[in-house]
């Protein structure tokens, strides 16, 4: 993946042939090593974590289908997205 220009989470830096891609992956590897990445589900929509948690709990309980979950999380995302293009 790295040799195709990507940034894998755990690249084998010794196998990267392009010097610029290698430098990019070295810097990314340092961010990973420094615990600089995090799961931040509120990023796409304010309050999204609550929506995700609610839907996942309902799916686990069997009271929501995957299709309904997709609808649940699409609603706030699409609503917020619409406010950005105004």
Report what the structure shows.
With 86 residues, the protein is an all-alpha fold. The protein has two domains: 2-33, no CATH class; 48-84, no CATH class. 56% of the residues lie in helices and 0% in strands. α2 (48-61) packs antiparallel against α3 (66-84). It starts with 18 loop residues before the first helix and ends with a helix.
Bin the strand percentage: under 5%
Pattern of helices and strands = HHH
Low-confidence stretches: none
Rg, Cα atoms, Å: 19 Å
Largest sheet: none
- Shape type: elongated
- The structure class reads mainly alpha
Total domains: 2
Q: How many strands in all?
A: 0
Arithmetic mean of pLDDT? 88
Summarize the amount of helix as a percent range: 55-70%
First-last Cα distance: 38 Å
Number of helices: 3
Topology:
Elements: H1 19-33, H2 48-61, H3 66-84
Helix pairs in contact: 2-3
List keywords for this structure.
86 residues; single chain; 0% strand; 56% helix; 2 domains; mainly alpha; elongated
Outline of this structure?
The chain has 86 residues and is mainly α. It has helices at 19-33, 48-61, 66-84.
């Amino acid at each position: 993946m790295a040799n195709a220009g990507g940034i894998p989470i755990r690249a084998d830096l010794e196998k990267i042939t392009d010097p610029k891609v290698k430098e990019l992956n070295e810097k990314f590897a340092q961010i990973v090593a420094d615990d600089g990445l995090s799961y931040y589900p509120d990023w796409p929509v304010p309050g999204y974590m609550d929506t995700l948690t609610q839907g996942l709990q309902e799916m686990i309980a069997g009271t929501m289908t995957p299709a309904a979950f997709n609808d649940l999380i699409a609603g706030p995302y699409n609503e917020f997205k619409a406010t950005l293009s105004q």
